[in-house]
Design goal:
Order of helices and strands of chain A: HHHHHHH
CATH topology of chain B: F1FO ATP Synthase
Structural class of chain A: mainly alpha
Largest sheet of chain A: none
Distance between the termini of chain A: 28 Å
Number of strands of chain B: 0
Shape of chain A: flat
Strand content of chain B: under 5%
Oligomer: heterodimer
Radius of gyration of chain B: 18 Å
Distance between the termini of chain B: 5 Å
Largest sheet of chain B: none
Number of domains of chain B: 1
Mean pLDDT of chain B: 89
Mean pLDDT of chain A: 77
Low-confidence stretches of chain A: 6-21, 38-43
Largest interface: A-B, 39 and 30 residues
């Protein structure tokens, strides 16, 4: 599954720079290495600096997936299957919306001077699809769409721990 | 749906989107201005500034989405339609 990448992908070239091959066995380890290098040194280029932003989006994406799975299980158990499908559709729309928003913010100040409004098409399309398909419900799909907000709050609460782990 | 309900729904939909977009629009503009100024002044904090901007934009734009959803419900899934 493709992560929430905004503009530049995180490449694992820390191995070739440092020469310590045993530390870079996995991709995540090399990402952490590269990010800690970025945090330590202040004179890097913009591609290195945006790695922190890309990692933030990746963390939000993972938390969003966990929250969505939890909400889908709860809605299957306590409501019904149609509500769960609507919730999953809304959650997918929320992920796409957040990705488009992150892409627009990533290009802010580089290729554009203002944040675009393309991401607002996603809730419009969601409401239109839910209104046209009789099996889908509006309220669960909106709740699913807004699941990105608890994900952002959880990420904001967990950020000090993640930053501490990255520095260590 | 009678004509008065239709007309009121269309007017309410326009007001919901229009009035609901004023506040977040002003807020997003000032937030983007501050973020770009911050990145220009302190380029080493670009990732952190962009992350904070993403959080604040997501929360601000949800206010616009609320108005948008109300407008779309009034237009396409109106609960007051007989």
């Amino acid at each position: 599954m493709e992560p929430l990448l905004a503009s530049t992908s995180v490449t694992s070239d820390a191995n070739s720079r440092n020469g310590d091959g045993d530390l870079c066995s996995s991709r995540e380890t090399s990402e952490r290495l590269k990010l800690s290098e970025d945090l330590e040194s202040s004179g890097n280029n913009s591609g290195d600096l945006s790695a922190e932003y890309v990692l933030l989006q990746l963390r939000i994406f993972r938390i969003n997936l966990v929250v969505t799975a939890f909400a889908a299980v709860v809605s299957i158990l306590f409501v019904d299957l149609n509500a769960a499908i609507s919730l999953l559709l809304g959650a997918c729309s929320g992920i796409i919306y957040l990705r488009l928003l992150a892409k627009n913010i990533g290009s802010l100040g580089k290729s554009s001077s203002s944040v675009g409004k393309v991401q607002l098409i996603v809730p419009v399309a969601l409401v239109l699809v839910v209104a046209k398909v009789p099996d889908l419900h509006l309220l669960p799909s909106l709740v699913g769409f807004l699941l990105y907000k608890p994900s952002l709050i959880i990420q904001f609460l967990l950020e000090p721990y993640a930053r501490k782990n990255l520095v260590n | 749906m009678d004509s008065i309900t239709t007309a009121a729904s269309v007017v309410a939909a326009g007001l919901a989107v229009g009035l609901g977009a004023i506040g977040p629009g002003i807020g997003q503009g000032s937030a983007a201005q501050g973020a770009v100024e911050g990145i220009a002044r302190q380029p080493e904090a670009e990732g952190k500034i962009r992350g904070t901007l993403l959080l604040s934009f997501a929360f601000m734009e949800s206010l616009t989405i609320y108005g948008l959803v109300v407008a779309l419900v009034l237009l396409f899934a109106n609960p007051f339609a007989g």
